Amino acid sequence: MTTCAFVEWPEGLAPRGREWDEIRRQVESARPNILVTNELPFGAWIAGASLFDRDVAAGSVALHEQGLEALNALGVPTVISSRPVWAGDRLANEAFVLANGKPRPLHRKQLFPEEEGWHEETWFKGDASGFIVSDIGDLEVGVLLCTELMFNEHARHYGRAGASLIVVPRATSISQDKWFAAGAMGAIVSGSFIVSSNRVGSSAGNPSFGGRGFAFAPDGTLVAQTSPSRTLAVIDIDPAAALRQKTLYPCNVVERRFI
After folding, report:
1. Could you report the per-residue pLDDT of 140-177, keeping only the tens digit for each?
2. CA 133: distance to chain centroid?
3. Do residues 2 and 215 make contact, with C-beta atoms less than 8 angstroms apart?
4. CB atoms within 10 A of CB 190
5. Could you tell me if residue 254 is inside a domain?
């Protein structure tokens, strides 16, 4: 059994200072095996701006590099998060696992909204790396970065590839109903645990983020969620439960392709 923590962390978070010290105390008290953060957890949400700014992008890259040290210092065996990295003239949103002090890329975001507050197509680009399950400790893990959760085919693909856990770092608004529905359906079609963390709060020029990290069991049951009074929650991940669920409806439906 693996314990997995998920969170709602504040917009504009710095990897040092009073807010970070409180986060560190919470994580040290919970002592999870895995910590899942929200999407691009450090600094302001840069995609709130409608025009790409190379200096702002470089600042976010540098801040997340500093964040690696802070995450590593939490003492959690495994941290799964995302960070901005350069991809030509723009950025990629790269999910990674931090273990033994070293980050390992897991997935790059491929699906980007382009609307008020979320000008991600302007700031980020995808690539051909796709959606690959990764071995992390005793688990097979897939990553869906925020908007990617809305596309059930990717959760289903991860489930069929053997993922017992799908993590979803996100940065979503106050309205949460669709995200909880997507989380439940992602679990149902994959037979995997779905664990998601979110930003909370707002800063100048950015939308308001709604918090409410969540965890769904492989059958689509909501197991736990965060709140303003409970900004970190922990669940048990049982790979055997995911394996059993994959033998049941609808995971056991045979896919037929017709030309």
Report:
1. 999 999 999 999 999 999 999 999 999 999 999 999 99
2. 14
3. no
4. 31
5. no
User: Sorting pLDDT into bands at 50, 70 and 90, what band is 255?
Assistant: confident
User: Considering the domain boundaries, does residue 185 fall inside one?
Assistant: yes
What pLDDT was estimated at residue 64? 98
The answer as to whether 131 is a domain residue is: yes
Structure tokens at 235: 């669940």
Q: Model-level pTM?
A: 0.96
196, 192, 104: which is closest to 148 by C-alpha?
Answer: 196
- Write the CB contacts of 192 (distance below 8 Å, at least 6 apart in sequence): 142, 155, 158, 159, 163, 164, 165, 166, 186, 218, 242, 245
CB distance 216 to 184 below 8 Å: yes
Helix axes 152-160, 177-190, angle to 10 degrees: 30
Which residue range forms the structural domain that includes residue 160?
2-245
Asked if residue 154 belongs to a domain, the reply is yes
Longest dimension (CA), the chain: 59
Task: Give tens-digit pLDDT for 106-133.
Answer: 999 999 999 999 999 999 999 999 999 9
Number of domains, the chain: 1
Secondary structure element (H or E) that encloses residue 10, with its range:
strand 2-10
Q: Where residue 110 sits, what CATH number does that domain have?
A: 3.60.110.10
For residues 2 and 33, the answer to whether their CB atoms sit within 8 Å is: yes
The answer to whether 237 and 164 have CB atoms below 8 angstroms apart is: yes
Judged on CB neighbours under 10 Å (0-12, 13-18, 19+), 90 is middle
Residue 187 DSSP class:
H
Residue type (1 letter), 35: L
Tokens 């059993």 belong to residue: 244
Rounded Cα distance between 46 and 69, Å, is 21
